[in-house]
Amino acid sequence: MFKKSSHVDFKILYNNLLELVRKKELYIQYNIEDSFTARIFLIFFFTSFLLIRLKKLPNSKKVSQDIFDNIFHHIELNTRELGFGDVYVNKKMKILTKSFYNILLECEKYEETKHNEFVNFLSSNFYSNKNEKKECSEKLAKFFNVFNDFSSKLTLESIKKGDIKFNYF
């Protein structure tokens, strides 16, 4: 009779994701270039693990879709704030959506313990120097493993409240 609200506090959730992505230690410890694209990809990885968690929880389908929609809405707004026009933004958003789905699929594979594939995927997304690829990708995969463990314990309500305070550093 009474339907539970799927209200998600997007502002808090998005700000907490940004807080994770803005940690300088993340870029220093894992030798990630601090660029617009790297930040977006990191948001995609964190969001993917949250969506994978939500997929396992009952009554979370609408919440997952709302989170996805909101994340992309914010990225679009941020891209426009950087001064890019409609044509560029629309083209970029199409590319980013495809990238997000690739990341989500790889994160789901990681869930199925295909560690080496995940490490290679991280290499191709974050590292260009062959010497740093393997070592840094392994370390970054371990970091995401810890985040995956963290997110696997989150409840539907904690995600809806944006309570994803991940203190790794």
Give the SSE order as H and E letters. Answer: HHHHHHHH
> Averaged pLDDT, please?
89
- Please identify the structural class as seen in this structure: mainly alpha
Query: What is the terminal separation in angstroms?
Result: 45 Å
Biggest sheet statistics = none
Helix proportion: over 70%
Overall shape: it is globular
Low-confidence stretches: 1-5
Per DSSP, the total helix count is 8
* Tally of strands: 0
Textual characterization of the structure:
By secondary structure, this protein is mainly alpha-helical. The chain has eight helices and no strands. The protein has helices at residues 10-21, 24-29, 36-55, 61-81, 86-111, 115-126, 130-151, 156-160. Helix 4 packs across helix 5 and helix 6 (115-126) crosses helix 7 (130-151). The longest helix is centred in the middle third of the chain and has 26 residues, at 86-111. The protein starts with 9 loop residues before the first helix and ends in a 9-residue tail after the last helix. Residues 1-5 have low confidence and may be disordered.
